[in-house]
Structures are given as C-alpha cells and as structure tokens.
Amino acid sequence: MMKLADLTPDHRKRFLLKNLITHLHQFVKDTSLTTQEWEEAILFLTATGQKCTPLRQEMILLSDVLGVSALVDAINNPSIKGGTESSVLGPFYTDDSPDLENGDSIASEDKGDYMYVEGRVLSTDGTPVPNASIETWETDGHGFYDTQYAQRDKPECRGRIHADKDGRYGYRAVVPVAYPIPGDGPVGQLLLGMGRHNMRPNHLHVMVEAPGYRKLVSAFYPEGDDWLESDPVFGVKNSLVVSLEDVHDAAEARKRGFPKGDSFKLLKRDIVLVPA
User: Fold this and answer.
1) Among the listed residues 78, 59, 69, 93, the one whose alpha carbon sits nearest the alpha carbon of residue 207
2) Residues 17, 3: Cα–Cα separation, whole Å
3) Rounded to whole angstroms, what are the CA distances from 272 to 73, 171, 215?
4) Can you tell me the distance from the alpha carbon of 159 to that of 40, in angstroms, rounded to the nearest whole number?
5) Distance in angstroms (rounded) separating the CA atoms of residues 102 and 92
6) Among residues 10, 73, 94, 129, which one has the fewest Cβ atoms lying within 10 Å of its Cβ?
7) What phi, psi does 67 have (nearest 5°)?
8) What is the pLDDT of residues 248-274, one digit of tens each?
9) pLDDT at residue number 202
10) C-alpha to C-alpha distance for 119 and 271, rounded to whole angstroms
11) Residues 166, 167, 170: CA angle, nearest 5 degrees
C-alpha cells in the first residue's frame, strides 16, 4: 500500500496519504476490528455524507464533536499575545450573508430578544483597522439557525458589515440561546451512544477579514450559560466569554434602531486582528 502511495506526485498529498494509511491500519490492528464493526463504520460514514446538503454540513459536525475541528483550529491559529482567539467555524456557516450598513439588523423583527453588538477592530499594537469585513451569524430566539427551517426564503440572523475608518462597528442582533446539536442525523445518534449531551452554549459567530491581517474565525459566548464548561464541539475559550449589559432606556433603544420596547442587551467587544 505504501508503495502505491509513493506514486502520488504531490509531495504534501503523498505525506498526508501515507500517514493516514499508517494510522488507519494501526487502528484496525490495535482494535482487532471485526467485519461487522467495519460494515457499521462504513454505513455510519455513508449516512453522515448523505445527511449533508448545501445548507447542512453533517461532516463538519462529526469533525466538531470528535474534537478534530478544534485541534485543526489550534494548530493553524495559535494564540498570539493581544490577538482575539479563534474558535470553530461550526456546521451552520453559509456564504450568502447579506451586506449591511453599520447599525443595521442581522435579524428580522420578532426573531428574539434585542441585542446590540458594538466595538472596534484593532491591530495588536492598538491601532484601528479601517473597513474590516465582519461576517456574523447566530441562532434565533428559539435556538435554531435559519438553515434548520424547512422554509428558508432568505438569510436570517446573519449578515456582513464593515468597520468604519476608525475601526468602529455596530449592529443589531438577537440574544442567542443554547441549542441542541441536531439529533436527527448520525452525529446526534453518535453523541447519545457515547453518553454525551448535545447542548451547545449560546454564542455569536464572527468572521473578520482585512488586508494585511490573518483571517479570524471566532465566536463570543455570553457568561452564565449552563453549558459553557462542557461544549460538545470544544469551541469555548475563556477569553471569548463575554458579559451582556442590561440597558433599560427607551430613548437609547430607539437611537440604536430597535422599533419597540425599552430594553435590550448590549455586547461590547473589541476584535483584535494579528498582522499577517
């Protein structure tokens, strides 16, 4: 098998394939894998692939719950002093987020409790990063991403804004809530079979890009969630846990664009990018 792998012309692919084959064969030997277990594994991987759609990524979810996504993230995005830490992308990212202006809402009305997110995009030396692209997505107030609904007329609870010339950004959103990893697929069944819970702590995803800086994929996790210490996809990092401020001021709510009510949550967080 290794002699055949040696025929791979691309050096990196050859290296990856040889290591994959080595470890797969060693796993089979170490576990004395039975024919029935091999068949069950093939069926599981087949079902995982079949569950994927253009809007649902069961394979990424499998990588997440096995800790592979977090490990790849840690290797490729090591913590840099002063920079905002990364987190896993997750399976609910889509590439159709609408472009919005600063101060706009990523969520339609009645999608959840009001939240305003604001801060600055900075470099590790403290200077502002102008016009940085900030793509963000989250669940609605029921704990569902837009891709989980049978009817998806448009992107919801997601959007893309740009920081201003001083690096400042702000947008309206809803307070994310904890939610269960989908249990209608093979990955959900795997978690149950392992005796693990399937609840992700509430969080707000961000993907930030600017010329001359490393791309940042991260998330902010409001403090106080019951599942912060046992995230099944290992995405939580202490530096990404944030506090939400309670604001009770009708005039301030109107000023920030909320059409009704006199209260909202305020998430204030600077995002620090690392020069490339």
Assistant:
1) 93
2) 11
3) 17, 18, 11
4) 40
5) 23
6) 10
7) 80, 5
8) 999 999 999 999 999 999 999 999 999
9) 97
10) 7
11) 115
Threshold 0.85, pTM exceeds? yes
Residue 144 and residue 137: Cα distance in Å, rounded?
A: 11
As a whole number of angstroms, the distance between CA 185 and CA 28 comes to 26
Q: b vs e for 162-180, b when ≥16 Cβ sit within 10 Å of the residue's Cβ?
A: bbbeebebbbbbbbbbbbe
SS (H, E, C) 136-205: EECCCCCCCCHHHCCCCCCCCCEEEEECCCCCEEEEEEECCCCEECCCCCHHHHHHHHCCCCCEECCCEE
Rg of the chain over Cα atoms, rounded to whole angstroms, equals 21
Which tokens in the block code for residue 168?
Answer: 């400042």
Span 32-83, pLDDT tens digits: 999 999 999 999 999 999 999 998 999 999 999 999 999 999 999 999 999 9
Rounded CA separation 99/8 (Å): 42
